[in-house]
Design goal:
Elements lengths: L11 H18 L6 H20 L14 H15 L3 H12 L2
């Protein structure tokens, strides 16, 4: 999301976050990297914020359109499952139980 697509009424903190995400995207696009610990912190807070929205039943796609590939998702999800000590079977069971609600 570029700053051109954001309402002018966003808070100063939201504006800073937008500028940071644009800078990180530019770093990635130019072949740069960020430290692992910073990436972990960004992913952690992003997941927590997204889950908070889901728990409030505010459903929306987790990614901007055409920014993340299926391979990106699978690689990330596999690492997240390993970190949480979950097997794919458990994820399937949990997902089935959530859909029946």
């Amino acid at each position: 999301m570029s700053s051109a697509n954001v309402p002018s009424s966003i808070s100063a903190a939201e504006q800073q976050l937008l500028q940071l995400t644009e800078a990180l995207k530019e770093t990635y696009d130019s072949g740069g990297t960020i430290p692992d610990q910073l990436l972990q912190q960004l992913l952690t807070v992003s997941v927590k914020l997204y889950v908070g929205k889901l728990e409030q039943e505010q459903r929306f796609p987790p990614f901007t359109e055409n920014e993340v590939t299926a391979t990106d998702v699978v690689m990330t999800v596999c690492e997240m499952l390993d970190y949480a000590g979950l097997e794919l079977f458990e994820l399937g069971m949990w997902r089935s139980s959530r859909k029946s609600r």
